[in-house]
Design a protein that fits this description.
Layout (H helix, E strand, L loop, with lengths): L20 H8 L3 E5 L2 E4 L1 H20 L3 E2 L5 E3 H7 L1 H4 L5 E4 L5 E4 L4 H11 L8 E10 L14 E11 L2 H21 L4 E5 L10 E7 L5 E6 L5 E3 L19 E4 L6 H7 L8 E9 L11 E10 L6 H7 L8 E3 L2 H8 L15 E5 L8 E4 L5 E6 L9 E3 L17 E16 L1 H6 L2 E3 L5 E3 L1 E8 H11 L1 E2 L2 E2 L10 E5 L5 H16 L4 E4 L5 H11 L3 E5 L7 E6 L5 E5 H20 L3
Parallel strand pairs: 3-7, 15-17, 17-20, 27-28, 27-29
Antiparallel strand pairs: 1-2, 4-6, 5-6, 7-8, 8-24, 9-10, 10-21, 11-12, 11-21, 13-19, 14-15, 14-16, 18-19, 21-24, 22-23, 25-26, 29-30, 30-31
Helix pairs in contact: 1-11, 2-6, 2-11, 12-14
The protein binds adenosine-5'-triphosphate and magnesium ion.
Length: about 600
């Protein structure tokens, strides 16, 4: 490709809306252009990189015996009603109606569609296992689209679905996909790690996220330095404090003026925070939208955790039956107080009425706690579970963070930020049972197909690569996903000999299988070098003042030093480096 004929523009200024390196550089390098919030157009270089990532994904999926198909992002609402997700998915599901009033969703994922395809076409155990996938635009009307390709409302996802006869088959399919994911992300040049994850709205049991390390990721991961445990903070099991053995003391009400927080009351009563009970109050909504377009209130709930702990919202939502994020929020104090007797800052479990009470699993083992007295400026001390109050649900609700105990070996955990670039799930029979996707086994018995599903955020992975590979001058693409391997920069002022040599090198690179682009624009060398740096092409060959002697300058993006080589040496070196680095990434080193 010749840049003089290429449609592209790089930006010298940092676009106002961009806050993180990948967003800034992908805009500045002209890879993407915003259409509307959370929706991007991919320009020449950007689309080439997307296609390279897609190709890596495709090769690894095909090697794992998955077959590519493509389905329409327009999905009939009926399928979502069948699975029960039309209501559960909430406002993130982008819904639309046709002229006859029939409802559709723009697919945020495609479990229903793939289950529907398979139920129509698979009837015998002889047709299993199967794994089918697609690389397709997905739509999620995210509450907070941000960070460019990281969290957009339209994005490219590879989604694969496996169909097996039984759990053993699923385990095998899952491991095959897990291995394929390792290859994909290694080949993309990402530093990543699979971590145990919550299965969220997709459902199912076992799940892992592939998390690429990066400061601006939105996944918090805890990992153990002593063993190989790693999980999202949402998923990591909390380790309960050992049950206390002190004798329960008589409960007493005490005056605690103005102590609305755990810190304040602990300081006032000179108690460690571990001896206090933290209350968090929520309102839960029905999942069907009412006539007025709002979600009706279903119930109020009061959650209690040890005073020094934080509540993990995902665990709480799971304890409530896996309700969607949009169906729960902090309760309005006055509204909840009128019904249940709760008092903002002074809520405790003793005497609370008309609401569901949920306690973290370690709370029943704690003795003589301080809790709100349901009266302004009053607390109760020596509150004991069982004697003074009980909960409707007792389960692990703790947020596990830095320094928390590893649930496997009890060593202190470390916290890291990361970008979720993929997730794999063992779904089991959730969708096959809901949609009636069955097969006949050897004994002619009807059995539900056992499913798995496997997603890769192609465009988010592209952003993750930039987060991990950039400097103050722009992107530094790994060879495998660079829009081009090499750029030939012609210094225009160097005359006809230079032009002829640059052409020869460009043709030579193409002939040697190097993905090359020729900067033949009528621009100053400074402009060309800056653009080459921003765009992040791994190899730059500059043809300038020594062209007459057949000598050119060879430079790697990100390296300070340059080498003077003959034209032939430069072509050979570029071909070798491109080949070697593609192979290295293939081997996942
Ligand atoms: P998140 O927790 O970040 O919202 P998710 O767990 O809901 O993501 P999945 O349903 O697991 O996402 O989708 C598979 C993959 O698609 C994710 O691992 C991620 O890489 C990508 N992805 C999901 N949502 C977005 C988005 N809004 N923009 C870009 N990529 C996304
Ligand atoms: Mg996910």
């Amino acid at each position: 490709m010749r840049l003089s004929k290429t449609h592209f523009t790089t930006l010298r200024e940092v676009p106002g809306e961009a806050e993180i390196p990948s967003h800034i550089w992908l805009l500045r390098a002209g890879f993407i252009r915003k259409s509307v919030s959370g929706v991007y157009n991919f320009m020449t270089f950007g689309w080439r990189t997307v296609r390279k990532i897609e190709q890596i994904v495709r090769e690894e999926m095909d090697a794992a015996d998955a077959q590519e198909i493509i389905t329409s992002p327009v999905q009939p609402a009926e399928l979502w009603h069948e699975s029960g997700r039309w209501a559960v998915y909430g406002p993130e599901l982008w819904r639309l109606k046709d002229r006859h009033g029939r409802e559709f969703a723009l697919g945020p994922t495609a479990e229903e569609v793939f289950t529907d395809i398979v139920r129509g076409e698979i009837s015998s155990y002889r047709q299993l296992p199967r794994n089918i996938y697609q690389i397709q635009l997905k739509y999620r009307d995210e509450a907070r689209p941000r960070y460019g390709l990281m969290r957009s409302r339209e994005f490219i996802m590879k989604d694969a679905y496996s169909f097996d006869r039984d759990q053993d088959g699923l385990d095998e399919s899952y491991l095959k996909m897990r291995a394929a994911y390792h290859n994909v992300f290694s080949r993309c040049g990402l530093e990543f790690r699979p971590v145990r994850a919550d299965s969220g709205a997709i459902g199912g049991k076992d799940s892992e996220e592939f998390v690429a390390f990066g400061d601006y990721g939105e996944s918090d991961v805890v990992y153990c330095g002593a063993c190989d445990f790693a999980a999202t903070t949402e998923q990591a099991e909390g380790v309960d404090a050992a049950p206390e053995s002190e004798a329960p003391l008589p409960m007493e009400e005490v005056h605690t003026p103005g102590t609305k927080t755990i810190d304040a009351v602990a300081a006032f009563l000179k108690l460690p925070k571990e001896k206090t009970l933290k209350a968090l109050l929520f309102v839960v909504y029905e999942d069907e939208i009412a006539q007025n377009g709002a979600y009706p209130v279903k119930e109020y709930i009061a959650v209690f955790v040890r005073g020094d702990r934080e509540l993990n919202m995902v665990k709480l939502r799971n304890a409530l039956g896996g309700i969607g994020e949009h169906l729960i929020e902090f309760a309005d104090e006055a509204a909840m107080g009128a019904l249940t007797g709760s008092v903002g800052g002074f809520t405790g479990p003793v005497g609370l009425k008309d609401c569901r009470v949920i306690a973290d699993s370690e709370v029943p083992g704690l003795k003589n706690l301080c809790a709100g007295a349901l009266k302004e400026d009053r607390h109760l001390v020596n509150v004991n579970y069982g004697r003074d109050w009980t909960a409707d649900i007792v389960t692990d609700l703790k947020l596990v963070g830095e320094g928390g105990a590893c649930p496997v070996c009890a060593a202190p955990l470390k916290l890291a930020r990361g970008i979720e670039v993929g997730q794999i799930f063992k779904l089991g029979t959730k969708y096959s049972e809901a949609l009636g996707a069955t097969y006949k086994d050897e004994n002619q018995q009807e059995q539900p197909i056992v499913m798995g599903c496997y997603g890769i955020g192609v465009t988010r992975a592209m952003a993750a690569v930039v987060e991990q590979h950039h400097d103050e001058n722009g992107i530094i693409w790994p060879m495998s996903v660079a829009p081009f391997h090499a750029i030939v920069c012609l210094v225009q002022s160097a005359g006809e000999a230079a032009e002829a040599l640059a052409n020869e090198i460009y043709e030579g690179l193409l002939a040697a299988g190097v993905d090359a682009v020729f900067d033949d624009r009528d621009e100053r060398p400074g402009v060309k070098f800056k653009d080459a740096d921003i765009i992040g092409i791994p190899i730059r060959i500059t043809v300038g003042k020594r062209a007459g002697e057949g000598v050119v300058e060879y430079k790697r993006r990100g390296a300070a030093e340059t080498a003077e080589l003959t034209a032939r040496e430069a072509v050979e070196r570029a071909a070798n480096e491109a080949r070697r680095e593609m192979r290295r990434e293939m081997e996942g080193i």
